[in-house]
Design brief:
The chain is 28% helix and 20% strand. Helix 1 (34-46) runs parallel beside helix 3 (70-85) and helix 9 runs parallel beside helix 10. The chain contains 16 helices and 31 strands. The strands form 8 sheets. A 9-stranded mixed sheet has the order 14-13-15-16-23-22-21-18-19, sandwiched between helices. A 7-stranded parallel sheet has the order 7-6-3-2-1-11-9. Strands 12-25-26-31-29 form a 5-stranded antiparallel sheet, covered by helices on one side.
Length: 667
């Protein structure tokens, strides 16, 4: 299975930052000070940042219909020149009506609909065409963004969810992109909407990624999640990158993924922990296929305390990677270390290796099938994300496989986590893959709500070789506070007699297990593990050349609802499934799920291995390799242990031949 590794059109990797000068924030063009711009750009350049995302504050640049302010245009001319002088580039953003907790309308909007009013769309088209024509040939322009988070501008209370017409949104986007291209501008373009569409979130805001993908040159997620679990937080943006990936016929239409916005306010976190977060997000999204990073944002705005939006959203003053006097914060130093590593490994020529492990994403995430409930979609996101966390803790190079794209045929292991719903053809495909030699795992889940509560799994008994003991209209509640799963036979790397203890959580509906017995005869399942009451918890049915594995508990659902849960034992189960399927990772730290291992391959045949710690203390990790050795990047000497600082990252080279032993550098 191919995993997304699409690059920008010229093969470059973007390391940038969202930029407002500290002289004015969104009002910087009114308070434009060239000498401060030079100082700000110099600091960024010295720390490895070569690109900014800039913003044409709409009320200032277009004060009236069919009118551009010549002062603002001249100042942006100068802004571009100052980038070019420092060998930097920028991505202008056209429609800036939302920013940092406030919306600003052009004075002449007069309440017109952004997407459906012909006259207002015509003004936007004119604005994009005129400004792009002015700057399209400037060497400092690296790309274009149509908007800044326009779903919030369109409907700030709901981010547009359920209120915006997808057809109107797509037609609007096509109009603006065509206006841009009509000028001869050939730089990459995207929407700037945050990639919050139904295909990623399960909630439809009208900005459907499938519809917009043919119009854009890259996807640009904006990720600012609040979480209850450290590992889920560190891997949250990476999972979004995985969801946006795919081949030429998949969701992302084989377009590169740029982390267009991420970051944090220093009012919420210590500087040390801010640096940890940046480090984790940069490296985990790289391993998830991202080829660009543009954090929010370049500086703090303490001097603007009485200016909106900072007056009423004061925490927005302190998202900067420099402080209000331009001094670097630890986040910026972390970026510098990251860019130095990217240069050392020659990132432009790295790719993610293909995988034989598919994380199945039910089409119920994005397809609005009739008479289904909103929770049917959002639970798919929560469960597949938790499964992604467990797979990464097991060091499995998992790939996201969307049922809506057609499930791949070339995988040895398929993971279907806590899935209430898959289409009938989707089930047929998974069964066929098992018959052809794959291992297919599915865990039971009845849904969070009471509408058609139960597993929408056709012929469950025959598929898994069991006899279900369900009662119509009723659930079988999990009454224990913990699920104690005892293995009755060896399974992968789990030995008979071992016990895994899982958290239990859920609603009055979803906190339910599947009562089954193995069917009699040669087609019956064998019990691999039982719960504390002796009931089957994990069963396996041999079918054709492969096997179907049924978990009677919603492991991923329960973990997804539990705060501070990771690592929970699903990673052991996933590692065992991979061993059963013959796809154990080449490099792993098998005794520590808090050390995540990832791999990237170079065009010249070299391979690099990432070790990403989830520990808040230093540790020495001992990797296990199926072949070869790992080498220090600088000395080329062999590493038998990997010394990781708190939440640290170490990158080593994977070589076929043994070498000497030495200490390794840390990132």
């Amino acid at each position: 299975m191919r995993r997304n590794a699409a690059k920008l059109q010229d093969g470059t990797v973007w390391m940038g930052v969202n930029f407002w000068s500290r002289t004015g924030g969104p009002l910087m063009w009114r308070n434009y000070r060239p000498e401060v711009i030079d100082e700000e750009l110099t600091t960024l350049r010295e720390h490895g940042i070569t690109l900014t995302r800039s913003f044409l504050y709409w009320p200032d640049f277009m004060p009236q219909e069919n009118t551009l302010d010549p002062r603002m245009l001249a100042r942006f001319d100068d802004f571009l020149d100052r980038h070019a002088a420092q060998s930097m580039t920028t991505i202008p953003t056209f429609l800036v009506g939302h920013m940092s907790g406030q919306n600003w309308d052009p004075s002449w909007r007069d309440g017109r609909d952004i997407f459906a009013s012909p006259s207002f769309v015509a003004q936007q088209e004119w604005y994009v065409r005129e400004t792009a024509a002015r700057w399209k040939d400037h060497p400092a322009v690296a790309g274009w963004l149509l908007t800044n988070e326009i779903p919030i501008y369109a409907d700030w209370r709901s981010r547009g969810i359920g209120t915006l017409d997808a057809a109107a949104v797509t037609a609007w986007a096509r109009t603006l992109v065509e206006a841009l291209r009509a000028t001869g501008a050939d730089q990459p373009v995207s929407i700037g909407d945050g990639a919050w569409g139904v295909e990623v979130t399960g909630a439809d805001n009208g900005f459907r990624i499938r519809d917009l993908a043919p119009l854009v040159d890259f996807h640009g997620p904006h990720v600012y999640r609040m979480e209850t679990d450290q590992v889920r937080q560190h891997l949250g943006a990476a999972f979004v990158c995985e969801l946006l990936g795919g081949g030429p016929d998949g969701l992302g239409a084989d377009k590169p993924v740029i982390m267009e916005e991420f970051g944090l306010t220093s009012d919420y976190v210590s500087e040390e922990n801010a640096a940890h977060y940046y480090r984790q997000l940069l490296h985990t999204t790289l391993l998830a296929g991202a080829v660009g990073w543009i954090p929010w944002n370049n500086t703090d705005y303490d001097a603007l305390y009485d200016q909106e939006p900072y007056r009423h959203h004061p925490f927005e003053m302190h998202f900067g990677i420099t402080d209000h006097q331009g001094r670097p914060k630890e986040q910026l130093r972390e970026i510098k270390r990251f860019t130095e590593l990217l240069e050392r490994v020659d990132i432009a020529r790295l790719r993610r290796p293909d995988t034989a492990i598919a994380l199945v994403v039910s089409s119920f995430l994005e397809s609005r099938y009739p008479f289904t409930q909103p929770e049917d979609a959002t639970s798919v996101f929560a469960h597949t994300r938790q499964a992604y966390v467990a797979a990464r803790e097991a060091d499995l190079p998992v790939g996201v496989a969307r049922e809506a794209d057609g499930l791949p045929d070339d995988c040895a292991l398929y993971l279907l986590p806590s899935a209430k719903q898959l289409t009938a053809p989707g089930w047929r495909h998974l069964i066929a893959r098992a018959e052809a030699g794959a291992t297919v795992y599915a865990s039971y889940f009845v849904g969070e709500h009471g509408v058609q509560r139960g597993p929408w799994w056709p012929r469950l008994d025959e598929t898994f070789g069991v006899v279900k003991r369900l009662r119509y209209g009723l659930t079988d509640p999990i009454e224990d506070d913990r699920l104690r799963m005892t293995f009755r036979r060896d399974f992968g790397g789990i030995r008979a007699g071992e016990e895994l203890v899982f958290p239990v959580a859920g609603t009055e509906n979803s906190r339910s297990y599947l009562p089954v017995e193995p069917a009699a005869g040669p087609d019956g399942a064998e019990v691999i593990a039982t719960d504390a009451h002796g009931r089957p918890a994990l069963l396996r049915r041999a079918v054709g050349q492969g096997q179907l594995v049924l978990c009677t508990y919603p492991l991923e659902h329960m973990a997804a609802l539990t705060p501070r849960v990771n690592p929970e034992p699903s990673w052991r189960l996933y590692a065992a499934l991979a061993a059963e399927a013959g796809v154990s990772p080449d490099v792993t730290v098998p005794d520590d799920p808090r050390v995540l291992v990832g791999r990237m391959d170079h065009e010249d045949g070299r391979a690099f291995v990432w070790f990403v710690s989830q520990h808040d203390e230093p540790l020495a990790a001992r990797p296990v390799l199926s072949h070869g050795t790992i080498l220090d990047l600088t000395s080329g000497e062999e590493l038998s242990t990997v010394q990781l600082p708190p939440f640290g990252v170490v990158v080593a080279e994977l070589a076929e031949e043994p070498a000497r032993t030495a200490a390794e550098p840390t990132v």
